[in-house]
TrEMBL record:
<dbReference type="Pfam" id="PF01490">
    <property type="entry name" value="Aa_trans"/>
</dbReference>
<feature type="transmembrane region" description="Helical">
    <location>
        <begin position="41"/>
        <end position="64"/>
    </location>
</feature>
<dbReference type="GO" id="GO:0015179">
    <property type="term" value="F:L-amino acid transmembrane transporter activity"/>
</dbReference>
<keyword id="KW-0812">Transmembrane</keyword>
<feature type="transmembrane region" description="Helical">
    <location>
        <begin position="108"/>
        <end position="130"/>
    </location>
</feature>
<dbReference type="GO" id="GO:0005774">
    <property type="term" value="C:vacuolar membrane"/>
</dbReference>
<feature type="transmembrane region" description="Helical">
    <location>
        <begin position="85"/>
        <end position="102"/>
    </location>
</feature>
<feature type="domain" description="Amino acid transporter transmembrane">
    <location>
        <begin position="1"/>
        <end position="162"/>
    </location>
</feature>
<protein>
    <recommendedName>
        <fullName>Amino acid transporter transmembrane domain-containing protein</fullName>
    </recommendedName>
</protein>
<keyword id="KW-0472">Membrane</keyword>
<comment type="similarity">
    <text>Belongs to the amino acid/polyamine transporter 2 family.</text>
</comment>
<dbReference type="InterPro" id="IPR013057">
    <property type="entry name" value="AA_transpt_TM"/>
</dbReference>
<keyword id="KW-1133">Transmembrane helix</keyword>
Amino acid sequence: MLFLVVLFGGSGALAYAAFGSKIETVVLKNLPQASKPVQTVQFLYSLAILLSTPLQLFPALRILETALFVKSGKTSLRVKWTKNAFRLLVVLGCVAVSIFGAKDLDKFVSFVGSCACVPLCFVYPAMLHYKAVAKTRFQKGSDIALMVFGMLAAVYTSYQTIKLMAAPSGPAQPVGHCMPPEPGAGNGPDSPFWPGGRFF
């Protein structure tokens, strides 16, 4: 856990140290777009998302299909193709959300995090512990307090995110890039991070 905190916290801190207030939601957009290594990383990142989409959709589709379809597609060709059409609609819905939400990706991610991830972090573990493990009054009280805190946090953060989403957004800001090397500015050959400097 400590390793993950250091890894993600360090990555975020380095990104903010490099780009400051001009940092993008996806930090890859801050890198020079004409650079071949950057294009390779972006391609591999896109490929990873593309290949992991079925894995991410599988649990949600299973839950929805169990609730919507009584029969199995193994015995009925009609049910099988209805399920396939339903899966296609879910994927197209995700594509539509990604297209229309691309401009405000950070707000959309915040909304998903508020509605789904806050309960996943605070409410569900405490609920499971309360049902399966908690025996003493202190344990049960702690679980209930954590569940209440999680629900209040989810409602508050969701409200704040919806308010932020409803506020009019200005014109799209141009994508920031790394500054070209300038002598004496600390980002050129005189920088310790320049290839051949003391850190390389």
